[in-house]
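Module 6 notes. Inverse folding takes a fixed backbone as the condition and produces residue identities as the prediction. Think of it as a translation problem where the source language is geometry and the target language is the twenty amino acids. Below is one complete input and output pair. Work through it position by position during the lab.
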């Protein structure tokens, strides 16, 4: 008789991240994930000791994707500093990562450990942008402000729903980026 097929740890993490993005941290429940994966709750406990361990693994995966994976891809693709800034912003806030980023930001308001994790992620992102801005010879006194404005623009672009009469959102964002990088 063949041994039972076990649902791998990464499958639980992926299902958890998808549920987190759709419904927030309170919806990430073992029984819900087991039903989505078509397995029993017992399979969960062969991979994790607790829901908290799963949530930590999910945050690890989110952090790796939105910092390490993005920066590795940006550096591997090369280009000048402006191209790297643009690519990092585009990759960091793709349709796949942005919903998670927004949920984690909301979650961080209620959970100090998640807040500390988000701060670490944002600090890594900002430090990368600062370094690129310095290499572009942005005035030292302006580096922090420009980095913050660029980072805020990318996040706020998903939150602000205002119309831009006579212009597309893409054109307005592109113009704002040019203003900040010129």
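Target side of the pair, the amino acids:
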């Amino acid at each position: 008789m063949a041994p039972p097929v076990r649902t791998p740890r990464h499958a639980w993490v992926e299902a958890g991240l998808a549920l987190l993005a759709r419904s927030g941290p309170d919806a990430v429940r073992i029984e819900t994930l087991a039903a989505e994966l078509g397995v029993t709750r017992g399979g969960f406990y062969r991979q994790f000791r607790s829901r908290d361990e799963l949530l930590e693994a999910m945050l690890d995966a989110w952090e790796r994707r939105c910092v390490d994976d993005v920066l590795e891809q940006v550096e591997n693709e090369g280009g000048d500093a402006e191209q790297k800034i643009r690519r990092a912003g585009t990759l960091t806030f793709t349709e796949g990562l942005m919903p998670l980023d927004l949920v984690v930001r909301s979650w961080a308001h209620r959970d100090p450990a998640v807040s500390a994790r988000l701060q670490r992620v944002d600090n890594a992102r900002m430090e990368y942008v600062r370094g690129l801005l310095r290499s572009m010879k942005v005035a030292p006194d302006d580096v922090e402000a420009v980095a913050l404005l660029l980072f805020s623009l990318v996040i706020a672009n998903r939150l602000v729903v205002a119309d831009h009469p006579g212009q597309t959102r893409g054109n307005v964002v592109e113009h704002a980026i040019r203003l900040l990088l010129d």
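Reference fact for the lab report: The chain has one domain: 9-181.
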